[in-house]
Q: What sequence folds into this?
């Protein structure tokens, strides 16, 4: 962690907790319609050390290289500390004990890359508080509070996929999650399947406004159809007269169908079928939902040319990472070929 907790706060931490990042295998933006998603936790994530403080607490971020005071002000500052204050406030409002604490945060997860660094931070902070107070909070409730922190405090109108994947996900398993009922199953990754997560070299940009636009288009479609898109048939979408609204709705409705097929393909250990669904998902995100970038498209193309069974952008898009399914035995040769054609790309997980 670079600077030690003792050198920052004069005492040893009383607990150290971890929350992973996640990669979404398929099911992009379907959480906005309460649909199905299939994310998987990563080995990389956010580590938090914590100890009680005699006065108002502070937080040191090793990534940012700076210390911030933790005032539980009801208004967000727009800075990284919001992702700590938000969860603390939500816990307090939900009736949990939130004493004055000092935190040190370290992450080996890139921020703004589509691998849920903010959800990991929110969940890690909550786990750190509970480690001190001894109170308990179910993982699902924790995910709900973390999402509230993003929606109500940080002002990011995200769905619940990331917080659920981080809070309830199991290493080595994909999480087949229904974002409306919050029921889920852990699906072990079949032997021989390698999930590669590769950053395209360009950080995510201008995502908040674009994200909200997509969400508004979904609401417009639901109002026009007088039915939740989760239950809408493809043929019903023909009633949508506005071309852009049609395209956005077409993506989430077809993507939800792809998630159901992908779950079946994973259970049948059919990597070809799973890979083809990933490829279709990328096409839909590129052409219908329009959240891809030339950098992501080039990396997806290179990943496939180098032998990936399937590849697609992962997370919100607009930069950041792709996910590819490759054969475990081919991963070194695969990466050699990809890094040759896309020299700016780098591995987050392989
Ligand atoms: C971000 C949001 C999620 C989800 C994805 C797109 O990661 O936080 O809720 O909508 O984008 O699938």
A:
């Amino acid at each position: 962690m670079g600077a030690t907790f003792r050198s920052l706060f004069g005492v040893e931490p009383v607990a150290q907790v971890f929350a992973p990042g996640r990669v979404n295998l398929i099911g992009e933006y379907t959480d906005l319609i309460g649909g199905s998603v299939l994310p998987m936790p990563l080995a990389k994530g956010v580590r938090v050390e914590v100890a009680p403080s005699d006065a108002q607490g502070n937080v040191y971020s090793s990534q940012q290289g700076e210390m911030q005071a933790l005032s539980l002000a009801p208004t967000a500052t727009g800075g990284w500390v919001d992702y700590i204050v938000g969860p603390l406030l939500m816990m307090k409002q939900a009736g949990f004990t939130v004493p004055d604490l000092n935190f040190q945060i370290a992450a080996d997860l890139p921020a703004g890359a589509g691998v849920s660094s903010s959800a990991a931070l929110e969940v890690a902070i909550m786990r750190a508080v509970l480690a001190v107070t001894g109170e308990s909070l179910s993982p699902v409730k924790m995910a709900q509070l973390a999402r509230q922190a993003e929606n109500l405090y940080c002002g990011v109108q995200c769905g619940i996929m990331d917080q659920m994947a981080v809070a309830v996900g199991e290493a080595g398993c994909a999480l087949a999650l229904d974002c409306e009922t919050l029921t889920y199953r852990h699906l072990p990754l079949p032997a021989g399947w390698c999930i590669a997560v590769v950053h395209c070299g360009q950080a995510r940009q201008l995502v908040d406004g674009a994200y909200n636009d997509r969400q508004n288009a979904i609401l417009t479609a639901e109002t026009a159809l007088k039915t939740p898109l989760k239950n809408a048939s493809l043929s019903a979408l023909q009633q949508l007269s506005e071309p852009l609204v049609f395209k956005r709705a077409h993506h989430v409705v077809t993507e939800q169908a792809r998630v159901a097929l992908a779950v079946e393909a994973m259970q049948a250990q059919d990597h070809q079928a799973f890979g083809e669904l990933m490829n279709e998902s990328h096409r839909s995100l590129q052409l219908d939902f329009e959240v891809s970038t030339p950098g992501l498209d080039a990396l997806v193309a290179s990943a496939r040319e180098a032998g990936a069974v399937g590849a697609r952008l992962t997370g919100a898009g607009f930069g950041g990472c792709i996910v590819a399914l490759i054969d475990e035995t081919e991963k070194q040769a695969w990466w050699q070929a990809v890094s040759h054609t896309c020299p700016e790309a780098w591995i987050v997980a392989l």
Q: What stands out?
A: Residues 156 and 208 are 7 Å apart (CA to CA). The radius of gyration is 20 Å. The chain has a mean pLDDT of 96.
